[in-house]
Amino acid sequence: MNTAPLWFDENVRDSLQNHRRANRHETAYFVYQLDALKAHLAQLQNQDVIKLWFAVKANPLSSIIKALDSQGFNFDVASSGELSQVLAQGIEPERVLNTGPAKSKNQLSRFLTQGVNTFVVESLNQLNWLNDVAIEQKCRPQVLLRVQLQWPEDGKNPLGGNTVTPFGLSTEIWSQINVRDYPSLDISGLHIFQWGNMLSNEKMYSLWSQMVEPLTTLAKTIGMTLKVLDLGGGLGIDYLQEGRQLSWQKIIRDLALIKEQAGVEELWLELGRYAVAECGYYVVPVVDRKTNFEQEQLVLAAGINHLLRPAITEQPFPVTRLRDNRAKQGKHNFEIHGPLCTSMDKLGQLELPKDTDVGDQLIFGYCGAYGFTESMPFFLCHEIAAEYVYQNGELEEIRAAQPASWYLR
Questions:
Q1: Measured between alpha carbons, how far is 227 from 187 in angstroms, rounded to an integer?
Q2: Within-domain flag for 263
């Protein structure tokens, strides 16, 4: 019997093997399990404590957005391109939240014109610009002020953690305003999100609890009736397979306490990886195997040009092998590299059967988030990865693999 890791759905293997035989010209591709995704999203929505938004940056593919829409998610967009993609799927603009640190006055105006009515404001400039365009367009958008706090805990984190970032402002700066000075804005919420890929329920609850007092104090200081608290995302995925999975049930129980402590009408989360990571795989062939200074190395047809995250976070995506995955001769820890002419192109040191060799296809897990659109596909003019969805037992091509001539002019 084939031995598959817990993150891999064995039912997909036959389809992937058949796909390989029929598409040997294809370098590498992503595949997303829509049925499994919808089932997961339904579980997340089976509660009445929080309002859920999808952070589109995690995966803006049309099929993914439609799956989230079918399960009642709203959408957090951080650019004009993301807004266009969401609206193109038939999402009403009233279900869009505009986030991101780089909102210009022109962008704010365009979003309002297109019907977006909810904004996370990250600077005094953005607050004043939005007020100006709201007056011009005779509307009153809902506004959340993004707050940046500092904690005594040390630790590196992709979102900054306790370091200073361009996301939001300190409570000291926000305390300089008064909501009565912005009658064209419904300033009724606060947004805070600094810690990414958290894997401890206890740590998350501790951080959330520490946020309540400074945020409620800020609201009183500036004359705000605090109706909405947006805690962003940050719910983690156990990429390193250390058995550190979050409990969604405990998250909901903890957030019910936070909601009560903050005294807000609505509590929001913007889920990215936690919503969609588990639904996606990335499949890529081995093109070379060698030994360097007693180190076993595999070189793949694609690497960080398709999967950049390992180079940024030093956390690899977990991997398995497409063909019979039983370790008849035991397993090796392989250093796995891509084809780019840079030592950065490394997908991690990962365990695979000893007989893994040229021609084998590897499957990386948790690639439903921060895969294709976080990659660096143009370096060295390699092939752009294809994307497929898996639904009702069938693979459907969403976008074929493309050569560099597709974008080079």
A1: 9
A2: yes
Residues 105, 128: Cα–Cα separation, whole Å: 9
Instruction: Output the six-digit token pair for 111.
Output: 């979003």
User: Exposure of 22 by Cβ count < 10 A (0-12 exposed, 13-18 middle, 19+ buried)?
Assistant: exposed
What residues have CB less than 8 Å from 55, skipping those under 6 apart? 76, 78, 99, 233, 270, 271, 272, 275
Residue 80's domain comprises 34-276
Q: How far apart are CA 34 and CA 21, in angstroms?
A: 23
CA distances to 21, 136, 243, 276 from 237, in Å: 32, 44, 10, 10
Q: Which long-range contacts (CB under 8 A, 24 or more apart) does 127-136 make?
A: 127/177, 127/182, 127/185, 129/103, 129/104, 129/105, 130/185, 131/182, 131/184, 131/185, 132/105, 133/105, 133/108, 133/109, 134/184, 134/185, 135/184, 136/109
Same domain, 145 and 189: yes
Q: Are residues 176 and 290 in the same domain?
A: no
pLDDT value of residue 158: 39
- Among 35, 78, 34, 75, which Cα is nearest to 52's? 75
Q: Which tokens sit at 43?
A: 């579980």
Please tell me the predicted confidence (pLDDT) of residue 120: 98
Q: Is there a contact between 199 and 238 (Cβ–Cβ < 8 Å)?
A: yes
Q: What is the pLDDT of residue 164?
A: 77
How many domains does the chain fold into?
A: 2
Chain center to CA of 137: 33
Q: Quick one: angle between helices 62-70 and 34-44, nearest 10?
A: 40
Q: Which helix (H) or strand (E) holds 51?
A: strand 51-55
Q: Are residues 228 and 285 in the same domain?
A: no
Contact 83/94 with Cβ under 8 angstroms?
no
Tell me the CATH number at 249: 3.20.20.10
Q: Are residues 295 and 239 in the same domain?
A: no
pLDDT at 3: 66
- What is the pLDDT, as a whole number, of residue 283? 97
| Strand 142-146 versus strand 186-191 pairing type | parallel
**Same-domain check for residues 182 and 249:** yes
Looking at the fold, whether 164 and 284 belong to one and the same domain comes out as no
> Does the reported pTM lie above 0.85?
yes
Intra-chain end-to-end CA distance of the chain, in Å:
50
Contact at 8 Å (CB) between 83 and 116? Answer: yes
Do 354 and 320 lie in a common domain?
yes
Among candidate residues 276, 291, 307, the one where a domain is terminated:
276
Low-confidence residues of the chain: pLDDT under 70: 1-3, 151-163, 327
Same domain for 56 and 26, yes or no, is: no
